[in-house]
Fold Acyltransferase.
Amino acid sequence: MLFNSLEFLLFFPVVFILYWIMKNNYKYQNILLLVSSYIFYAWWDWRFLSLILFSSFVDYFSGLNIEASKTNAGRKKWLLVSLCSNLGLLGVFKYYNFFADSFSDLMFGFGWEVDDLTLNIILPVGISFYTFQTLSYTIDIYRDQFKPTKDIISFLTYISFFPQLVAGPIERASNLLPQIETKREFKHKWFNEGIFQILVGLFRKIVIADNLGTYVDAVYYNPEIHNSSTLVLATFFYAFQIYYDFSGYSDIAIGSAKLLGFKFHQNFNLPYFSKSITEFWRKWHMSLSFWLRDYLYISLGGNRKGIKITYRNLMLTMLLGGLWHGSSWNFVIWGGIHGLALGLEKFVFSLKKNQNFGFFGYIYTFIVVLLSWVFFRAPDLDSSLTIIKKILSFEFLMPFIGDFNNVAISVLMLLLGIGFDLYIRLKKVDLEILGGKLSIFRLVTFATVIIMLLNLFYSTSNNFIYFQF
């Protein structure tokens, strides 16, 4: 079920009304949320429910057994059960065909032809997100940073909670589970904040991202026929398409949760206003960035074992972070570009007092991010290299635009989006609380304009980009 679908427009109000009718019994509310979340997830394919149920039960009992184990060996054994079960599922459904194809290509390079090893399987929606979420639970218990819950309904609700089930934010058990296991109260301030953030999220997705995507798809579908200026414009559009698409999803998720009395962590904080790649990753998809830092980078040794090991850990973290996004060498290269930039910045910052590059940092950061998006968006490695080569040929002639009206509207909506981001930055207020700070007049005015734009541009044909990950 898509957040920008008519089904969700009917689904959520029903859940909201029933949920607050049960306000005096949070356990009944949890049962409602659990059933609603499974319906929400099964809307794509009910068969995928078996995977999320398997992961949930494995980690529920693994958490209890890690806590109950008397020896460190016993704790490690149950942690391995959790890791192998979850990463095994992720490996089969997301990465098996990638490695099978890569192996076949490698053998072909040596002159050996092997039979087709790929399997006819599809990627379950959201498996990367709920796998990371449930793994953080068992790892935190193993590290003695969290106590396992004995309430299985609360745990199942934590893993499957529909606002963040499919594409995050990746919420830690330490934040979300205590909220699930206590009574929630309806707060008018949170209601205003939630409604406003949902509308902003829909605006970012439907009005900005989907319009930009029309041009991007047309150019990236056949990059060979386009010149440098066209490819640069399409890549520039894509940088904002993916930002507004994914931040829009996060806005709707955070706003929906707030309407139900839950507070999620911020997932985006104006990442393109960054003076370094290091700062960019503190503002972009923050729940994933901090997950990679806490559970991968630190587990590898972080910066505790010398500068060479630190550089290695940075690169490995970003390479695996790239691979997490998709089973393609494109994503590995994308992660490698960011890993290289982070390593270079750490070296440069060690030689100077300031941890940024001043105003030049804005330009440098955006250029690095922009070029890396080519590998993220292109359908395959050959297309990526073709686009990079053509961009660097500097054939900056008049771009082939196609539908000029679509491009003009996209630019206008993009300017509105950037203008709104500048407003938030200048006001020094997070979007998550902006709705509660506006006067009734401003809130109604904002909401009216957004609803009018949503009606003008609404289309059910565009999925959220991060669903494929």
Remarks:
- The chain has two domains: 6-185, 189-275+357-468.
- The CA atoms of residues 26 and 182 lie 7 Å apart.
- The longest helix spans residues 72-109.
